[in-house]
Amino acid sequence: MKKTLILCGLIIAGITASFGQAKKPTIMVVPSDNWCIKNGFTMEFDNEGTKVVIPDYKKAFQQSTEVKLAVSAINGMMADRGFPLKDLESIMKSLESDAAEDAMRTSKSGAEVAENPVDILKKKAKADIIMELTWTVNKTGPKKSITWILRGLDSYTNKQVASAQGTGAPSMSAEVPVLIQEAVTAHIDNFNVQLQAHFDDMFVNGREIILRVKVWDDWDYDLESEDFGDDELGMIIEEWMDENTQKGRYNTTDMTETMALFEQVRIPMYNAKGRALDARGFAKVLYKKLKGDPMNIPCKLVQKGLGRATIYLGGK
């Protein structure tokens, strides 16, 4: 009986330890788009002819002490709970010193593919989750309170995977970061449970990305060509997707003679070498298949952020 109790105790302890050691997602905390726009920290980006407004994190950190303190407060709370962090300000400085990071890529045939500076930032950080923080300081007489919103976004898809919001208790003297900590503390653990559930699901079902295959206008072939195997090229690519996605999970959203769009593509979290796998790493395997013998298709692989990749067929 005593041995049985000891054995049960060891099993329970082992289970507890395994949960305690569960791998946690890497987090990067950023001020939300809403907060940046309301406070004038934005820039314009030409997205293939369309002007879009995006947050200017560099300007925000240079001109607002409040944002630095607010982000630091959430960073501290997440670090205390064992989440690995990527520091936004450090990543921005790293990008500035890395001349190889360029927001514009040009094919040898002259076509251009622009990359959003925020996508470049995410690609550099390689965080699993982006935590967006929005806050407003409320003033009632001499008292201040914080109304806040936290959103957890999958950095590969920009889909929301966790959320929390609320208003903290009024205070006579507390500074903004203290007000944020006090207001968020009661909700942060439930928020983290949502994050962890999403991360655990990715280990089982794969990380979600988007993959496109496009054909250059001047190429003599297209996705309906049957010159590269025993079926149309588009069908051959779909067969490859069947074999290489996690549990064969993906959706062919569109397939024409010049373009294939695969969405909700689930890929393994790590490659055979144990390195984190992103859209480019996954697409690179297909790229090599198309480029190599016996197909020998001229290709170009372009990445946007962590979760989108496009293979252009017919030229560099």
Topology:
Layout: H1 2-20, E1 27-31, H2 33-38, E2 42-47, E3 50-55, H3 57-63, H4 65-80, H5 88-97, E4 104-106, E5 112-114, H6 117-125, E6 129-140, E7 143-154, E8 160-167, H7 176-205, E9 207-215, H8 233-244, E10 251-255, E11 259-267, H9 279-291, E12 299-304, E13 308-313
Parallel strand pairs: 1-6, 9-13
Antiparallel strand pairs: 2-3, 4-5, 6-7, 7-8, 9-11, 10-11, 12-13
Give the gist of this structure.
By secondary structure, this protein is an alpha+beta fold.
Question: How would you describe what is shown here?
Answer:
The protein is of the alpha+beta class and 316 residues long. It has 2 domains: 25-203, 3-Layer(aba) Sandwich (Rossmann fold), CATH 3.40.50.10610; 206-313. It has helices spanning 2-20, 33-38, 57-63, 65-80, 88-97, 117-125, 176-205, 233-244, 279-291; strands at residues 27-31, 42-47, 50-55, 104-106, 112-114, 129-140, 143-154, 160-167, 207-215, 251-255, 259-267, 299-304, 308-313. Helix 4 crosses helix 7. The protein is elongated and about 75 Å long. The termini are far apart. Mean pLDDT is 87; it is low at 1-21 and 99-112.
Biggest beta-sheet profile: 5 strands, mixed
Low-pLDDT stretches: 1-21, 99-112
Structural class: alpha+beta
Approximate shape:
elongated
H-E order: HEHEEHHHEEHEEEHEHEEHEE
Helix content: 25-40%
How many strands?
13
Tally of separate helices: 9
Please tell me how large the radius of gyration is. Answer: 23 Å
CATH class of the largest domain: Alpha Beta
CATH architecture of the largest domain: 3-Layer(aba) Sandwich
Taking strands numbered 1, 2, ... along the chain, how are they ordered across the largest sheet?
10-11-9-13-12
**Overall average residue pLDDT:** 87
Oligomeric form: single chain
CATH topology of the largest domain: Rossmann fold
